[in-house]
Amino acid sequence: MQDTNIAPTVTTEFEKEVYSGLTDYPKHLSSKYIYDKKGDKLFQDIMAMPTYYLTNCEYEILEQNKHEITALFSGSGTFDLIELGAGDGKKTKILLKEFSDKKIDFTYVPIDISNNALNQLHDSCKIELPEVNVQPFQGTYFEALKEINTRKNRKVILFLGSNIGNLMHDQAVGFMEKIQQLMQPNDLLLMGFDQKKNPQTILDAYNDQEGITAAFNKNILARINSELEGNFDLEQFLHWEVYDPETGTAKSFLVSKIEQTVRIESLDLTVHFKQWETIHTEISQKYDDQIIDWLAKESGLQLTTAFQSKTHSYKNCVFKI
Ligand code: AVI
């Protein structure tokens, strides 16, 4: 359902998706647009929250299993360690340090949509791990896949942080299938999967009392305001999280507290919100073994090893073709 008949002057992907998402019913926006400089910082703050257990679990898995992971990755000689959605690389540095200490021959290729995050990562690697060869690449996941295809060395691909959970199952299969098509017999893929667990633990992770996750979610509206000349009043939207323990899907919404009209000047768009109307902004899928096996089968990958955190809250799985 469209709120206006005025033809929009939409050109960028961001403009197109904001226009189509806010003129659809029910309304939706893609979580990938939460991340700008402020969104990156808010996500780093989320990762530092004790209730956002995912980061500590993955950190623990990599720390506890770094020797086994090193043996697994370096078994067939030199390789490119390609990280999709590298962010601040904090967890990956456990492996980088271990590889560096063991004098493993590899090149680190962090890939991220955020130039800002990549620059910070590159600078920190120069100081903390000067002997590691870092070749950053800025782009979306799909541009990243093209970049991966141009590289000749054996590939070890990292997709950490349960980033796969921000894709719906069909998109996740499509993405994993694309990775599978780029992999050669000796290549490996290490992915993080947040596990189904006590639903309250999940709700607490995505609905902190300090309001950091709320600010993160609302940053998508802040971006529309600053980049598309919008006039969203962030105070008039509520961050709301739901979790379905049957499907394992956590969903984030922004809920309009009042009936209101928002103007997005650069799209020549007027958007009307009824009181309590929603914008769906993010999914954070949680997994069990059955879903992971299904994803692997659908995308033509073989699960070779799985490492899990002590609490069984989180898994890192290694796949080959
Ligand atoms: C990046 N991604 C895996 C995070 C997640 O858990 O879905 C983003 C996030 N959203 C709210 N908190 C964290």
UniProtKB/TrEMBL annotation:
InterPro entries: EgtD, EgtD_Methyltrsf_superfamily, MeTrfase_dom, MeTrfase_EgtD-like, SAM-dependent_MTases_sf. Residues 14-319 form the Histidine-specific methyltransferase SAM-dependent domain. It comes from the Bacteria. Signal peptide: none annotated. Keywords: Methyltransferase, Transferase. It holds the Pfam family Methyltransf_33. This is Dimethylhistidine N-methyltransferase.
